[in-house]
Amino acid sequence: MSGDHHNTDESGPAARVKALEAILTEKGMLDPAALDAIVDAYETRVGPRNGARVVAKAWTDPEYRKRLLADATAAVGELGFAGPEGGHLVAVENTDGVHNLVVCTLCSCYPWPVLGLPPVWYKSFAYRSRAVSDPRGVLKDFGTELGAEVEIRVWDSSAEIRYLVIPQRPKGTDAMSEDELAAIVTRDSMVGVEKIAPLARPGAKRARA
Amino acid sequence: MNASALNKLIEAARLDPEHVFSAPWEARAFAIALKLSEAGLFTWDEFRDHLIAEVGASDRIRARDGTSDHGEYYEHFLRALEHLLAEKGIATTGVRES
User: Fold this and answer.
1) B13 belongs to a structural domain
2) How far is B49 from chain A (nearest CA, A)?
3) Count of domains forming chain A
4) Has residue B5 been placed in a domain?
5) Residue A7 domain flag
6) Which member of A43, A124, A129, A186 has the lowest number of beta carbons within 10 Å of its beta carbon?
7) How far is A88 from chain B (nearest CA, A)?
8) What mean pLDDT do residues B3-19 have?
9) Does residue B13 sit at the A interface (CB-CB below 8 Å)?
10) Beta carbons of A29 and B74 less than 8 Å apart
């Protein structure tokens, strides 16, 4: 059943989606304009820049950090981030001794309001099948090497709980504003597959990744 | 066996970090599923159960054959949606013997 049909035009996925949309629209269950709006939202507005704002605020506002660790859904809601797949969000914080890594072993559960939709690798068998059994190996694939003394905690997302990793604030960023900090927080660091590297020189800007 | 497969996907993501959908039909399928669940035709949990079944079937084949995937997630996603809509009697397009 692994898609033997999907190379012919009529049974290819694009044609099947088109057929589905046509019949649902005809039945009055769908408005094509509403679909455009959803696609636009997830391609432009709902994405990891939201999570980066949350992390930057947690780095600069100790009271906010406390609220985020106590009830992440409410704390990200304070910044206006809410929506599908945003309930029961848990923030986990990286420290010198603990590194957190997030996976969804069964499918693709991911905190949409703060990170948007997951990247291809997050949904891949290669990642899902190894993150729990070999987290250090997986991190190595991302170029992330942790000392043997660092404990790795792997969080398996589920229908009930989604996770946001609060990466460690890199050295050399003391003088940076919250906005500047948000610009250096990467999506991958909030899934826990990388650390944010220290800035080469304080105040230097880094390209968004 | 899967290390190099993961490396390829990581590399692709780094070359195109803003990448959300690989093809317009993926975006469309996602939007249809989200919209219908918001409209109450099914719950997202019901959809997820179907998605887990599709992904799980594919995983078992990969584990058995030692093969890796190449980002065909939305094909599982679409099959899950088709099966759920057929089960609910909402639409039977695309559902074929499998």
Assistant:
1) no
2) 9
3) 2
4) no
5) no
6) A43
7) 14
8) 85
9) yes
10) no
Q: Which of A14-23, A156-165, B11-20, B75-84 has the lowest mean pLDDT?
A: B11-20
Q: What pLDDT shows up at residue A160?
A: 84
Please report which confidence band the pLDDT of residue B92 belongs to, taking 50, 70 and 90 as the band edges. confident
Q: Which of A11, A108, A133, A177 is catalytic?
A: A108
Q: Residue A93 phi/psi, 5° resolution?
A: -105, 130
Residue B12 lies in a domain: no
ipTM value, please give it. Answer: 0.89
Residue A169 belongs to what domain range?
A: 47-191
The verdict on B47 touching A (C-beta cutoff 8 Å) is: no
**A6 assigned to some structural domain:** no
**Is A75 exposed, middle or buried (CB count within 10 Å of its CB: 0-12, 13-18, 19+)?**
buried
Q: Is A11 a catalytic residue?
A: no
Nearest residue, CB atoms, A16 vs list B21, B51, B94: B94
User: How many domains does chain B fold into?
Assistant: 1
* Low-confidence spans in chain A with pLDDT less than 70: 1-10, 200-209
Nearest Cβ partner for B20 among A29, A30, A42: A42
- The two structure tokens encoding residue A157: 């997302």
Residues A156 and A68 in one domain: yes
User: Which structural domain, as residue segments, surrounds residue B36?
Assistant: 21-98
The pLDDT of residue A206 is 57
For residue A1, the distance in angstroms to the closest alpha carbon of chain B comes to 5
Domain of A186, CATH number, reads 3.90.330.10
- pLDDT tens by residue, A2-31: 444 444 566 799 999 999 999 999 999 999
